[in-house]
Amino acid sequence: MDDDFRNQTQQIAQDLGMDFTTAVRVFLKQIVHNHRLPFKPELDPFYMTHNKIALMDSMQQLNKGKLIQKSLKGLQAMKNKFCFYNTKLE
Q1: Of 12, 19, 62, 81, which is the most exposed, with the fewest CB atoms less than 10 Å away?
Q2: Is-contact 36 42, C-beta < 8 A?
Q3: pLDDT for 45-54, tens place per residue?
């Protein structure tokens, strides 16, 4: 296994809350248990690295007092300007 591939799989395992060895063990146990290739685990997009970075950036802005306040009417106007589907903002 090349280093780049191993590093990528280690990062995904870490994002799922386990180390590489545990991830491999889970994979192999599923093969034995189901007598076939296992399910496809997926990450919750909320916990993906790019989202974590965006959340940290937002928290830094918040801590620096860089806030934008909008009224419900202002948010509805933004929705009407940028959304092309019909959803009700309440």
Answers
A1: 81
A2: no
A3: 777 888 888 8
Nearest-angstrom CA–CA distance, 67 and 75: 15
pTM listed for this prediction? 0.41
If you count them, how many residues does the chain have?
Answer: 90
Residues 6+ apart with CB under 8 A from 52: none
Distance CA 38, CA 34 (A): 7
| Residue showing tokens 């009700």 | 88
Q: How far apart are CA 54 and CA 38, in angstroms?
A: 32
**HEC string of the chain?**
CCHHHHHHHHHHHHHCCCCHHHHHHHHHHHHHHHCCCCCCCCCCHHHCHHHHHHHHHHHHHHHCCCCCCCCHHHHHHHHHHHCCCCCCCC
